[in-house]
Amino acid sequence: MKRIALFPGSFDPFTKGHEDIVKRGLKLFDEIIVAIGYNSKKANRYFDIEYMEEKINQTFSDTPEVSVLVYNELTAQIADKYEAFYILRGLRNTTDFEYENSISQVNRDLNPKLETVFLITSAELAAVNSSIVREVHRYGGDVQKYLPYDL
Ligand code: ADP
Question: Lower CB count within 10 Å: N or C terminus of the chain?
Fold first, then answer.
């Protein structure tokens, strides 16, 4: 059976940090589905969700093992729908850990087939953060070096 992982997130925007997690995740999984979710706290996105979907597809156009979807339901439910029984997440620091710890426990409570697998961020990408990229972009700064595609 294929090992399929979901990589859920807001990806507002998708950064080189996210790309690194996907590439390293491919050493563990046969397929990775990058799942762009509507997060209730982040209902007002900065980058349009369809635009980001296109940019992530473009980033992995030579990697058929990676696909992209937009979803608006529970991660634990879409995992079943796509037979993706692993959730891939990146861990940068203790703040990420506190948050990831609870969502991982709740996801497994909701769907006992699900295991979350965490990859520690690569040191050179630890500071790359979607909210900082948004701020820099908002005030006209150059964010291209943090992104794996041309904006
Ligand atoms: P969310 O809003 O669900 O936290 P994000 O789009 O911010 O979604 O992040 C998705 C995942 O990518 C999270 O697991 C996050 O920890 C991870 N991530 C974000 N930036 C990096 C980075 N620079 N290095 C490694 N992992 C990262």
Answer: N
